[in-house]
Structure formats: C-alpha cells, structure tokens
UniProtKB/TrEMBL annotation:
CDD domains: PLPDE_III_ODC (cd00622). The keyword Transport does not apply. The keyword Nucleus does not apply. InterPro entries: Ala_racemase/Decarboxylase_C, De-COase2_N, De-COase2_pyr-phos_BS, Orn/DAP/Arg_de-COase, Orn_de-COase, PLP-binding_barrel. SUPFAM superfamilies: Alanine racemase C-terminal domain-like, PLP-binding barrel. This is ornithine decarboxylase. Keywords: Lyase, Pyridoxal phosphate. Its cofactor is pyridoxal 5'-phosphate. Belongs to the Orn/Lys/Arg decarboxylase class-II family.
Length: 381
C-alpha cells in the first residue's frame, strides 16, 4: 500500500464518494515490478498476462516500457492494440480458441499462438497460415496457491506429435510453454518443466524440426499474508535450470507474469456492513460481512486459496476469530471460514478496511450486477 493510494482514498472519503468498495492501482508500483522482472531475467522477454488487470492505463504504461502481452481473447488483443502495442508484441496464449477468433487475431496481425492438441493446430493452420505456434505442456503445480494444472496443456510425450503436426501443416513449430501454477512460492518448480521442454527440443531436432522458444509462463508471486521469495531468486533458479537442461544452447525465453506484475500495486477499500454472531454464546465466532465478496472482486478467495491481508482502523487491539463474508445473497459468498480470520474485537460496523495485494484478478472477476451490486469501482493513479 503506497502513500499515493492512501491519499487518493482519503480524498475520495472527504468528497463523500466512498459509497462502495473501490480498488486503487498505483502505476509506480507496476513500473517497479516491470523493471524488477527485466533485471531478474535480463535475457527474457516479458509478455504481461493481460487477464490479471487489463486497465487501459496499466496496458499503456507497460506498452511504453517495451513489454509484450499474453492475451486470452480477441477483446484482450484489441485492448492491447488500443494501448499502443504492435501485433508482433502479442501472443494469443489461450489454448482454447474459436476458429473465428483465431482468424480475427490473424487479421489484426497476431502471429503467435498457443496450442495443446492437434485440433487446435488445425484451426490455426486453416485461418492463420504460417504462424508461430508453441505447445503447452502439463507440469507439476505443487507449491502454487492457485494451481492451473489439468485444464491446459498436454503430457510432454504428446507435445512432439502436436508440434510435428503443426510443422507438417506449414506452421512454424516455435516452442514449448508451461505454467507452474499461479502464486508459485517455490522458485525451483521451473526445473522439472524445463527438463521436459528440453527433451521435446531434442526429440524434435532429431526429426529435423528446430524449436526456438520456451515460454516460462507466469506464477511469479505477490505478497499476501506470507512473505514470498524475491523475483531475483526466481531469475537465478530459472537460469540454473535452463543451463542444466539446455547446456550452452539456451533457447529464446519469454515470461508471462500477471499477479507478480500488478498484485501489490492495488489496494481495495471496503466497508464493514454487519458484524453478528450465529448464537448467543460468547465464545461463538463473529461473522464480519463486508461490502465486497466473491462476486464483486474477491473471487480468488474460492477455497480460501488466496488470503489477502485485511487492515482495519482498530489494528493493534486484541483480536478474535471471525468468518469474513461478502454482501450478496449467495451462501457461497463467504471469503474465509475454514481458516477464520483474526480481526480486532473493537472493529465496528461502518469501519473502512483495506484489503492489500488486490491489483490482480479482482476487477476482471467482478460480475456486472449480481444482486444489483455494481462491478468493482477502479481508479488507476
Ligand atoms: N499465462 C497464462 C497462459 C495464464 O493462463 C496465466 C494465468 O492464468 C498467466 C500467464 C499469468 O499467471 P500469473 O498471474 O500466475 O503470473
């Protein structure tokens, strides 16, 4: 949380505009994060994962700093182009695309696509001839607080066939990608995935197909309640793994940071709507209902995977365990219950609380109008 954000929120309160939850994103922090990635992984190109936070100001800043972009849909491609990036800096990184969306991306100038099966390769060959494709492989996501396994990628043994198929259909079989799981707290998790990637490179080279690129994905963490290793440690671990598995023939590499680029740049101010108990027993846990929940920004509390730091005006006072819940009429809209949250006993209805580390995966998960609650108000400063 930066002074700039706190000043902005104080001004909003003074002007009586604090009617609902509000996310404020500080571009200075995004800039620092971009520079941090560029320093920690100096030979790697950064493709910012737009899904984490597609605010036009964030995209324009990153475009001006020289970032490339990982996109998941035609809308995201259009957002990146509107922010001033050229199409050669865009990857269509979703492995699940409609053929007409591939055609639209191609018409917009995009020439880099993710695949994880032959059917997807065939779509690209039909409507985006000659494009570069990289094959996403499954990898072990343990150590990640928000795993991305199973749904995307094929087993490494299948990737050679997928890329060979692409080559046969006139596409540029360009490389391999993986994602070690989001909020990956173990920098060594890239090692096994890079071993698999290097084996695919070798096997295809034997068949006369020379891959060029490894997409190291996202996974770089932001700080929530627990400390996480610094980005430099990720850079060192990745460089060691690349050297170990590729020797002196290290391929071109890219990273796709989302959370690590914008997570700590955002702060949400929310309000305590109600504090209650489910019985008259004094020992009973309190329920603290906020005006923000799973459907207006905090979807990543699903299964309590992401635990955001919550600051209150009563911090420092004695605490007791609380269930923290959102405001909507859906009973799944409970943020923390399995592991109750310690909040000050003197916390009052109407208090403003600050939820840290909320720059990533909040606005994009905020539903329009569920129960009449508006999408998350957002300001980029
Ligand atoms: N790249 C791809 C293909 C993704 O699906 C994601 C997240 O879903 C990211 C990058 C960003 O991951 P993270 O936010 O963990 O950096």
């Amino acid at each position: 949380m930066t002074d700039r954000i706190l000043d902005f929120l104080a001004e909003r309160r003074r002007n009586g505009r604090d009617n609902g939850p509000c996310l404020v994103v500080d571009l200075d922090v995004v800039r620092e994060n971009y520079v941090g990635f560029a320093k920690a992984l100096p030979d790697t190109r950064v493709f910012y994962a737009v899904k984490a936070n597609p605010a036009p100001e964030v995209l324009s800043l990153l475009a001006s700093l020289g970032s490339c972009f990982d996109t998941a849909s035609v809308v995201e491609i259009e957002q990146v182009l509107a922010a001033g990036a050229t199409p050669d800096r865009i990857s269509f990184g979703n492995t699940i695309k409609k053929e007409r969306d591939v055609a639209r991306a191609y018409a917009l100038g995009v020439r880099l696509f993710a695949v994880d099966c032959e059917a997807e390769v065939e779509k690209i060959a039909r409507v985006a001839p000659g494009s570069k494709v990289f094959c996403r492989i499954l990898c072990d996501g343990s150590g990640a607080e928000w795993p991305l396994s199973r749904k995307f990628g094929c087993v490494p043994e299948m990737a050679t066939g997928v890329l060979e198929h692409a080559h046969r259909l006139g596409l540029n079989a360009y490389g391999v990608s993986f994602h070690v799981g989001s909020q990956q707290t173990n920098p060594r998790m890239w090692d096994a995935a890079l071993k698999s990637a290097s084996e695919i490179f070798r096997e295809l080279a034997e068949r006369g197909i020379n891959l060029q690129m490894v997409n190291l994905g996202g996974g770089f963490p932001t700080k929530y309640l627990k400390n996480v290793p610094a980005v430099k440690q990720y850079g060192n671990a990745i460089f060691r793994a690349l050297s170990k598995h590729f020797g002196n023939r290290i391929p071109e590499t890219i990273i796709e940071p989302g959370r690590g680029m914008v997570g700590n740049a955002g702060l949400i101010e929310a309000e305590v709507v109600l504090i209650s108990k489910k019985s008259e027993e004094d020992s009973e846990i309190r329920w603290v209902y906020l005006d923000i929940g799973k459907f207006n920004g905090l979807a990543e509390t699903t299964d309590e995977m992401i635990r955001y730091p919550i600051r209150t005006p009563a911090d420092g006072a004695p605490t007791s365990p609380c269930v923290v819940a959102g405001p909507s009429c859906d009973s799944v809209d409970v943020l923390y219950e399995k592991q109750p949250y310690q909040l000050p006993i003197s916390l009052e209805i109407g208090a403003k609380v600050l939820i840290e580390g909320t720059g990533a995966y909040t606005t994009t998960y905020s539903a329009v109008g569920f129960n009449g609650f508006p999408p998350l108000e957002t300001h980029v400063i």
